[in-house]
Every structure is written in C-alpha cells, then in structure tokens.
TrEMBL record:
CDD domains in the cross-refs: VirB11-like_ATPase
Pfam families for this protein: T2SSE
Gene3D superfamilies linked: 3.30.450.380, P-loop containing nucleotide triphosphate hydrolases
Protein name, as recorded: CpaF family protein
Family: Belongs to the GSP E family.
Domain Bacterial type II secretion system protein E: 88-344
Length: 422
C-alpha cells in the first residue's frame, strides 16, 4: 500500500522545485524544457526528494522506506504530477474496461471479461477528486474546459485515449465515468480474432470502405462503436486526407501517421464563463467541408449536427463514417429523424428520410451481451448490417446480414451496391 499522504506532500515539493527551475530557465533566457525533458527532470527531482526523506527517517531513528516502497512512492508522485493521480494504476491495467466513481471512495471497476469489482479510493476527499478533474480539464484537450459550479458537466479525452465524463452539483456527490480505449490501433482482422466480426462481414466492410460507401455504426453505450469505427478508418488508404469531428477527442487517428499521415482532428469548444466562444459540432462539420477532405468522420452524432453531416455525405464526400446510439439497425432512421427535428433547419420527417436515403449507404449494428451470469463473459458482436435502398415516404432498407442462431450476423439478402466484386 502506498502512503498517499506522503505522495501528496512529495508531489508538492517536486512541483515547487520544478516550477523554480522553470523560473530560473526563463530568467537566464533559456529555452523552456520540452514535455519529455520536464518528465526526465521530474524523475531526478523525485529521486532527490525520496533520498532526502530516507536520510531524515534514519536521522530520527525510524526505518526508511524499502526499495519496493520507494518505487511505489516514485510512481505515485510521477502520476500525480503528469498522470491522473491514483487513477493511474487502473489506466495502466490493460484488462480494465470501465471505471465508475460515485464520490472519491466509491469506485467500481469493470473488466474486459465482464467481472466487476470495487476499488480503493482515488482521492482523500470529494474536493480533492474535483481538483484532480479540474487539472485534467485544463490540460488534456485542445482547449481548457471548465469544471465548476457554473459548468457542472465535463467530457474530455485523457492522455491515454480513455473517455472521461464527469458531473458535479447535479448529483449528491461528484460522479465520474471513464471508458477505456483498450484497442487504439485496431484493424478488422483484430475484431475477427476477438469474435466481434465474422470473416465474411470483415471482407464486406473492407470492400464497402474501399468503395467509398457512407457507413453509420450504431449500437448501445459501450457496445464498441468507436473501436469498430477506428478499424473501418484504418482501411482507408494512407494517401487520403481525413477530417475528424468530435465532442471530445477520442478517435486519435492522427496519432498513427504511418496509417494516416494527413489528418485534421476537430474538437467542439464549449462556451467560456461569459457564454462566449462556443464552436458547435454542426459548425465544425460545416468547416470541415472547406478543408479539402477526402472523407469526413464524425465521432458520434448526438444532436443537430446530423443534418449538416447528411448534407456533407450527399455533396461529394463519399466514404464518410460516423456512429450513433440506437437499439437496432432499423431504429437508426427514426433516431436520425428525431435529431433532425431538433436542428435549426427543423426538417419534417419525410424530408429527413429522403436525406437519409441519399446520404447513408449502410448501417452496421454492434451488440453487447453480458453472459457472465451464466458462467460466460461480456460479448460484443455485429448482429446486423442494413443497406439503404431508397425512399418512399420512409427509408427503404434491406438487412443483408441478419442475426443468426447465436445472435451474430449471418448473410441474409443480396447486396445491391457495387462493392467491386465483393
């Protein structure tokens, strides 16, 4: 067990010495340290502080920390300075999938195999946890995001790619949910290997991406929509220019220049405390069309940006990708129509369905099943692929892959689109 009071104290000491060195460098006209240089310098300072602590303990006749305890303290101090504090061990565990925090000492962890367990406190108080989230909000995104009484909701991407959602003041205690990004650099064969896709569906999706079909990935929360979207995006040839639009950066396609050397990632900007400076998803989608994109990828459709996105898909940006929350592949069309009603265009239902029919080529529905209550584990798999065939007052579609005996999608109807001989 790490003595978190020591971590907190030493983190302050190292932070003060680091800040002092920054001031000295500036006064002497030296270039500021790079992020990596600062981390290396901090490691040296941590070793220095721990050595001083050990000498102090010996001088007072007490037993100094063991080597193992020193390593734990050093890791904790470094995580407090540059990571996410006591959350860091959970984010370093590749088997952790979701972290739900209902107050600093009520921490619930979900694992990849479907297990759930309680974890130790992530802070000494709710106030300390809020302070940690505020620090992350200030430095993790493209712009600082407030998290306070006036702005009690927060969404952001952590440095490791995980998605954090936090609320305060609208709940009895501050609450945080972190959804891990366990598969960052993922390909369709990887999803075949873990049972998400059948080899036939993988070949079909590969052909659809190469044929520049517009694809909407649908599913429930935590079903694996973003992971599948990443795998589809990684089928796009490296020579294409991609524009991604997200509420909080999550896709991270720009982190792999060997796969996508030409990527611009847009992130929604929230208004400041005076209500100024907001840049909405809809505005970013419109802006993306002026940035010479080969394809536009919208991380998640949750509102009025849907009309702008559908218009983009019908204006020559073939091969666009997006995700949406839905309970079935058929329900996607009604969900889109509901969002369109909320947009400034106030499109009527029939007009929205005509727009959908002209914009979307395929809907891929991914399902999540918790079978661990019967001795199994958490399963994710594509259960339906629907092709849009046209419009007659409502979207006309056919389910080309439908749920089979075990729920996984199997061939059901012929594909009408030209997928290059698939």
């Amino acid at each position: 067990m790490i003595d978190h009071s020591l971590v907190k104290r030493f983190r302050q000491e190292v932070g003060d010495r680091l800040a002092h060195q920054r001031r000295l460098d500036q006064a002497n006209g030296l270039q500021p340290m790079t992020g990596e240089d600062e981390r290396q310098f901090a490691r040296a300072l941590i070793s220095q502080v721990l050595e001083e602590h050990a000498r102090s303990e010996i001088g007072m006749g007490r037993t100094p920390p063991t080597l193992e305890e020193e390593e734990g303290l050093a890791a904790g101090i470094h995580a407090a300075l540059f990571g996410v504090g006591r959350l860091q061990p959970l984010l370093d565990d590749t088997e952790v999938e979701n972290i739900d925090i209902n107050g600093h000492d009520r921490v619930f962890v979900s694992y990849a195999d479907g297990r759930e367990a309680m974890h130790e406190a992530v802070a000494d108080s709710d106030e300390e946890m809020i302070e940690l989230i505020q620090i992350l909000a200030a430095y993790s995104g493209l712009s600082s995001r407030p998290f306070d009484t006036a702005n009690p909701q927060l969404d952001l991407r952590l440095p490791d790619g995980s998605r954090l959602s936090a609320v305060m003041d609208v709940t009895v205690r501050p609450a945080v949910s972190i959804r891990r990004s366990r598969l960052g650099k993922v390909f369709l064969p990887d999803l075949v290997g873990n049972g998400t896709l059948s080899p036939e569906i993988a070949r079909f999706l590969q052909a659809a991406v190469n044929a520049r079909q517009n694809i909407m990935v649908a599913g429930s929360t935590n079903a694996g929509k973003t992971t599948l979207l990443r795998a589809l995006a990684n089928e796009i040839p490296a020579g294409e220019r991609l524009i991604t639009v997200e509420r909080a950066l999550e896709l991270g396609l720009d982190q792999f220049p060997e796969l996508h050397p030409n990527v611009v990632a847009f992130e929604q900007r929230l208004p400041n405390s005076e209500g100024q400076g907001e840049i909405t998803m809809a505005e970013l989608v419109r802006r993306s069309l002026r940035m010479n994109p080969s394809r536009v990828i919208v991380g998640e459709v949750l509102g009025d940006e849907i009309v702008t996105m559908l218009n983009a898909m019908t204006q020559g940006n073939d091969g666009s990708l997006s995700t949406i929350h839905a309970n079935s592949s058929m329900e996607v069309f009604n969900r889109i129509a509901t969002y369109a009603l909320q947009a400034s265009e106030r499109l009527p239902i029939d007009a929205t369905h005509m727009l959908i029919a002209g914009a979307i080529d395929f809907v891929v529905f991914i399902e999540k099943r918790n079978d661990y209550d019967r001795g199994g584990s958490l399963r994710r798999y594509v259960s339906s692929v629907r092709e849009v065939n046209g419009c007659d007052g409502r979207v006309l579609s056919s389910e080309i892959f439908a749920p089979g005996p075990d729920g996984r999608a199997v061939p059901h109807a012929p594909v009408q689109a030209d997928l290059g001989g698939w």
